[in-house]
Amino acid sequence: MSNGNTGNRFTPKDFWAWFFEVFDSYGVIILGVFLLIYPFIFSGLLESIIWLEDNDYEGMAEALQTFRGFVPSTPLMIQILIFSLFGMAFNILLGNTGMLSLGHSAYFGVGGYTLGLMHAWFKKGTPVYPWITDTFKLFPLEFSIISAIIVSAVFSWLIGMIASTKRGVYFAMVTLALSMVFYYAAQTFDDLTGGTDGLGGLANMRMGTLNLRVGIMDATITYYFVFVIVVAATAIIWQILRSPYGQVLRAVRENENRARNCGYDTAKIRLMAFTLSGSLAGLAGALSIIYGESVPIENIHFITSGQIVIITLFGGAGVFLGPAVGSFIYWYLRQLMSTEFVKYLAIFQYWEAWVGGIFILIVLFVPQGILGTINNWTLNYRTKRYIERLEHESESASATESEES
Length: 405
What we know:
The protein is built from 16 helices and two strands.
């Protein structure tokens, strides 16, 4: 396997470089297949525990039950999927256009409130056009989800008209200030939104085309409903980012003045990116209320904007799957610390401090995020090995010529 030159040896680093390169190329497919079968894995684990208990294998059942506590539940995976979509929508701005929005909770919340209010309003006797009520009765989720995307797109376009003219910290602060307007409006019009208690008691969470009931009563069906929508939205984002428009977004991120000098209308491009990001964030917000069948006011608060910034930076801004990795890390750590680790040390009940500490470490030591750092390491290492191989081939060729002469 080796002739004494490092260029021809297959080392453990080569294996990991190959592994991460495969994940970078086919990561979406690998994750998609895993997520497709995940509910069966989780339910199979529970059935195994029950079988072991029924057959008097108490020790193995207890060990497997302990292991199960460290496996994300189906409802937790629903949350991870939703915030993966939210993070990828946010990453259109931060990672691909270089625009840090601190107010993306506004569109996440608007999407949720749109879906929630439609389920609360459109009932028999509602003073709206009958064709609207009749259509909603036939296709409640389809109608409300599409409406949530449209309403979120309109609001994000209006906010983008104001905010996208600013740059840097001014853009961030404008988006933050305008998002807080939405939050206080939700508090003020409590007869409409439920105020600080949120909008609860939503019914008729049903997909009319398949007559499929989703919501809190069946986590598995809800999981697959969310999974299909997230996969479809992810495919759309992927196609957009690899299109010429996506290339222009990254050109604006790298050097807006140069992109403008090349003839691109950078103001229009930024506004389009802001609108696209906001509409997809609204879709994620609509999905977030389906399982709980309620709209918490926290969805529209600044803390949600902070969460999505942390999630995106955890995984890696600018990396396509970065927000998905960040979403898993954030929600999984939160679940572990608040339910499992706290059994051994009470200090883990303050999971926010622990997650914040981890975030600080990532910003200090791996500022490109976990997946971004892995991608860079893989690229650098494989480039180094490629150069070594070329040098070795050049030396071999020189030695052969010397022997012949």
